[in-house]
Amino acid sequence: MSDFIFGPVLSRRFGLSLGIDLSPDKKQCNFDCLYCELKGAKTVAFMQNPPSVQEVVKSLKHSFIKFPDIDVITITANGEPALYPSLKELISAINFLKGGKKLLILSNAACIHDKNVQNALLDIDIVKLSLDTVIPSTFKKLNRPHNSVSLEQILKGMKEFGEVFKNELALEILVVENFNDTRDEFIALNHVINEIKPSRVDISTIDRPGAYRVKAVSSETLEILAREIKNIPVIVAKREGFTKKNLNLDEEEIIQLLKMRPQSEEDIDNILDENSKKLLLNLLKRDKIKLINVVGVNFYKLN
Ligand code: SF4
Questions:
Q1: Residue whose CA is closest, atom 8 of ligand 1?
Q2: Does one domain contain both 58 and 179?
Q3: Are residues 254 and 303 located together in one domain of the fold?
Q4: Both 183 and 298 in a single domain?
Q5: How many C-beta neighbours within 10 Å does residue 278 have?
C-alpha cells in the first residue's frame, strides 16, 4: 500500500471506503481548527510538494486489485484536499477508473469560492463540506483560518455551489463547548443552510483528543441545537451515555415532528416508543409519509 492510499475502513453510511491522502508527509491546511485531530500547524494557502496525479492513480489501481469490493473512494488529506493543485485532473482520472464505486471528498470549504474548485467538485458523487459557524468572530477563534480565507467568501461560494451541484451535498457542523454551542449560533446557521440547501446536515462534537484543549458538548446539547435546523435532514452523532427518549406521540404529533424536518431511521428509533413507531409505520403504509435515502442514510419525510 502506498503512502497516498489508506484503508479500507468500514463506514456506517457509505460502506467500505478507501482513502486517498493528498498530503501524506505533513499537515497542510488553510485552517488550524482547535478541535483538529492532527497536531496544530501553521496554516498555508498552497500545498507544497503535492504528489502527481499519475502517482496517486497508480497507487489507486494497485489498491483496486487488492480491494475490489470497496464501495467508496474518499479524497482527503493530512489537511485540506482542495488545496491540491490538480484536483480537476485527479477527479477525472478517478472517475474514469472507479466503475460503480462512489467518489466522496471531505473538505473544510475554505476554497469553495474558487471557480476552479467548484468546477472540479461538480464531478464528485458526494461532497461533504464543514461549516461550524457563520459568525466571523467564532470562525476566527474556532477554525483559525489562514489570512487568505474569508468566511464571507466561503458562504457565497457554498451558495453558488449548492445551486449548480447536481449530486449529494452534505454539510458538517462540529460543536465545541463555549465556541459554537449557543442557540444564536444555530439560528444563524439555519438561516444560511436553508440558502445553501444541502441534501443533509451532520452535527457532531469532539470525540477524540484534538490539537488544543477544547471540550465536547453533551449529546443532549447536540439534540437541542439540532432542533434549530429546519427543513433539511439532520444527523446528530450519538455520544456514549446517550439515553433513548421513548416518546409517546400520536399520529398528528408525528406529522408535526416530520414537518419540522425529515427524521432519520436512527433518530426515530432513539426518540419514539414502540407504539409511536407502529403509528409511524402505519403513516408510511398509507403514503402520508415516505422513506427516502439521503447521502447513504434513510429518512422519514412527509409526502
Ligand atoms: S480543516 Fe480539518 S485538517 Fe484542517 S485544521 Fe481543521 S480539522 Fe484539521
A1: 36
A2: yes
A3: yes
A4: no
A5: 11
Q: Are both 239 and 249 inside the same structural domain?
A: no
pLDDT tens digits, 117-126: 999 999 999 9
52-82 pLDDT, tens digit per residue, is: 999 999 999 999 888 888 899 999 988 999 9
Distance CA 302, CA 299 (A): 10
Whether residue 184 is found in the same domain as residue 258: no
CATH number at residue 266: 1.10.10
Burial of 178 (0-12, 13-18, 19+ CB in 10 A): exposed
At 243, the pLDDT band (50, 70, 90 cuts) reads low
Nearest Cα to Cα of residue 104 among 205, 15, 193 = 15
Q: Which atom of ligand 1 is nearest to the CA of 79?
A: 3
Dist. CA 106–CA 79, nearest whole Å: 10
Mutate which of 26, 29, 173 for ligand 1 pocket (most atoms within 8 A of beta carbon): 29
> Among 108, 143, 171, which is best to mutate for testing ligand 1, by the most ligand atoms less than 8 A from CB?
108
Tell which atom from ligand 1 comes closest to the C-alpha of 32.
5
Q: Cβ distance 292 to 262 under 8 Å?
A: yes
Q: Domain range for residue 222?
A: 5-243
Phi (first) and psi of residue 58, to 5 degrees: -60, -45
